[in-house]
Amino acid sequence: MALLLLEQMADRAVAADEINYNAAISACERSGLWTWALELLRRMPDERLTPNKVSYNAVLSVCEKGRHPWLALGLLREMAEVRLFADEISYSAAMSACEKNRQWKQALGLLQEMPCLRLLPDQVSYGAAISACEKRGRWQESLGVLSSMSRARVEPDATSFNAAISACDKTGRWQMALHLLMGMSEVAVLLTSMAYNAAIAVCARHEQWLLAFSLLRQMQEASAAADTTSCQCVITACDKVGHFELTTSLLDELEASLLFSR
């Protein structure tokens, strides 16, 4: 609708202003039309209009959805060149674009750049950086960002912990995964099924069947409901070390829970 309005204004020789263009760019952003959003941004100077922060942030947001980190990074640099100061929204969108495309170095670089510009990273910014590191198995960097959240007095949330635990899972750091899981309860973060499953999986892969079984029982007692993934990981761990009675018991338990859920 906003794009159609712009075309109708042009057909009637009615000059569009920044508000009209920003509305059209935002409409493209909501629809994920990144090429159209960028085209409108580029068209503004031709119409003697100056793109503002709203214009750039809308295009940055659609870059995030479309997983175009290099375009997002270029737009950030462009904002600096035209002396248009990026804000937390600008950086969070660019970092999320990097995260979705596994560009962990770029995501970390943007996170470190923010304080230099007197911008305060929030849970979204930190979470994007941790998740970008997790996708590449950079567990040390994930933990480093998680620690920096506390130093910056930003409370880590479940998403941040889940990503860090997953990074440890991917690299076989089962001790650290357990440490993070316990850390979640210490800072009153809700222990999620995702966090439990990642910790159970890494314990199971390293034949820590007793720990995996203990986590499963802890999970069942907590608000996070055990699922098929949780049980199967523990069953595999027990089966590997020859605990067939426990394996059979868990299989019966899993079958009963699946029948109950139908």
From TrEMBL:
Species lineage: Eukaryota, Sar, Alveolata, Dinophyceae, Suessiales
Keyword Repeat tagged: yes
PPR repeat feature ranges: 17-51, 87-121, 122-156
Protein name: PROP1-like PPR domain-containing protein
Keywords (A to Z) from UniProt: Repeat
Taxonomy, superkingdom: Eukaryota
Domain PROP1-like PPR: 18-175
InterPro entries xref list: PPR_rpt, PROP1-like_PPR_dom, PSII_mRNA-binding_protein, TPR-like_helical_dom_sf
Organism encoding this protein: Polarella glacialis
